[in-house]
Structures are given as structure tokens and as C-alpha cells.
């Protein structure tokens, strides 16, 4: 029994480690395992995932098709970048601020790990009991302290705030339900192993 529990825990941690990096997909369909550090108007700066203390690499946005972040979100880049808009607190368009809030949430909000971890641990005991924290955590918006927003002045603008918090809530929901799914899968594997 201890051996089975050890194998299951190893599978869980291995599965989570597989998704703990950003993946940059180039237009050539080459994937780069990375940790994205900055996205500018023209470039994407990153460090290789297996050498995060090493040099920072830069790739032009025009060469990038997609970035899948470790928190499950992704940014898609059009083939031709006609112009880039720089958002400031003086921006007059509410729709622009809403969209910028969603983009910033995808970049800066990593999801509250307590919600995902609590759901995972509870669901490992019982997936049905694990539904209680999963539903509770996914239905509540993230707390302001956990949002990690980049600009306090922008958060005072209602359009930006709404875009950021709505996207952050979706990211949190994704993490919670991913962890519930992992625990559910582990429980199914445990039942199959025990029945053999």
C-alpha cells in the first residue's frame, strides 16, 4: 500500500512539473521551453527553462505564433503586427483598458496556489468531497492581495479592474479544476491498481 501511495504522489508531482514552464511556439512550429520575463512592443524576452540563471534570449514577436504560460493561459500573436498600443492611465477608451486588464492578468496573475492545492489534497482523499472546495474556490473571485497587478493606478480605473479581475477569476478556476481533475485521475488509477 505504501508503494502505491508513493507511486501516486510521484505521478502527481511529475505531472505538475510537466506544466511548470512557459512554452513559446514559433511560426516554424518549434516549441521553446522557457520562462518568459518580458513582452515588449516588438520582442519577447525569456530564459531557457532548463537554465533560468543563464542568459536572457530575445525573439521578435513576428516570429512567435503562441505562448502557453505555466498557469494554463495563452497569448496568440497575429502574423502581421501592424501597430502596438501602449496603455497608460490616461487612455480614454474603456474597451482598450478592459482588454489591457485581461492581457495583464494573463501575464501577472499566476493563480492563488492555496485554492488549487487545497482542492488537490481534499480531492485525493475523495473526489466527491473535493468538489466542495473546488466549487467554492472557483465561484469566488481572487482576493485583491493575490492579484499581483503591475500598476496600481490602472487598477483604479473600472474598465481595467473589471478586465483584470474577470480574467484572473478564469485563471483561478482553471487551476482549481485542473487540480481536481488530477486528483480524480489519481483516484481512478488507485482503484484500478487496488482491484488488480
Could you explain the architecture of this structure?
This protein is α+β, with helices and mostly antiparallel strands and 196 residues long. It has two domains: 1-84, Roll (SH3 type barrels); 87-196, no CATH class. 51% of the residues lie in helices and 16% in strands. It contains six helices and six strands. The chain has a six-stranded antiparallel sheet with strand order 4-3-2-1-5-6, with no helix packed on it. Helix 3 runs antiparallel to helix 4 and helix 4 packs antiparallel against helix 6 (158-195). It is globular and about 55 Å long. The chain starts with a helix and ends with a helix.
Could you say which structural class the secondary elements and strand pairing correspond to? alpha+beta
State the end-to-end CA separation.
Answer: 13 Å
Number of domains: 2
Overall body shape: globular
Unreliable stretches: 81-92
Helix content: 40-55%
Question: Number of helical runs?
Answer: 6
The succession of helices and strands, N to C, reads HEEEEEEHHHHH
Give the biggest sheet.
6 strands, antiparallel
- Largest sheet, spatial ordering of strands: 4-3-2-1-5-6
Number of strand elements: 6
What radius of gyration results from the CA coordinates?
19 Å
Mean pLDDT: 80
| β-sheet strand percentage | 15-25%
Amino acid at each position: 500500500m505504501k508503494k502505491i501511495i508513493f507511486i501516486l504522489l510521484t505521478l502527481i508531482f511529475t505531472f505538475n512539473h510537466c506544466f511548470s514552464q512557459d512554452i513559446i511556439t514559433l511560426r516554424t512550429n518549434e516549441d521553446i521551453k522557457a520562462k518568459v520575463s518580458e513582452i515588449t512592443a516588438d520582442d519577447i524576452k525569456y530564459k531557457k527553462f532548463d537554465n533560468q540563471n543563464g542568459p536572457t534570449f530575445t525573439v521578435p514577436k513576428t516570429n512567435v505564433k503562441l505562448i502557453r504560460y505555466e498557469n494554463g493561459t495563452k497569448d496568440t500573436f497575429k502574423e502581421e503586427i501592424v501597430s502596438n498600443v501602449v496603455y497608460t492611465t490616461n487612455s480614454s477608451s474603456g474597451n482598450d483598458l478592459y482588454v489591457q486588464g485581461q492581457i495583464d492578468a494573463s501575464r501577472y496573475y499566476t493563480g492563488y496556489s492555496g485554492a488549487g492545492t487545497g482542492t488537490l489534497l481534499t480531492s485525493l482523499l475523495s473526489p466527491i468531497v473535493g468538489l466542495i472546495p473546488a466549487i467554492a474556490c472557483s465561484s469566488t473571485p481572487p482576493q485583491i492581495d493575490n492579484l499581483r497587478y503591475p500598476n496600481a493606478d490602472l487598477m483604479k480605473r473600472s474598465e481595467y479592474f473589471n478586465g483584470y479581475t474577470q480574467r484572473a477569476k478564469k485563471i483561478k478556476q482553471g487551476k482549481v479544476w485542473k487540480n481536481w481533475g488530477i486528483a480524480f485521475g489519481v483516484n481512478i488509477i488507485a482503484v484500478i491498481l487496488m482491484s488488480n
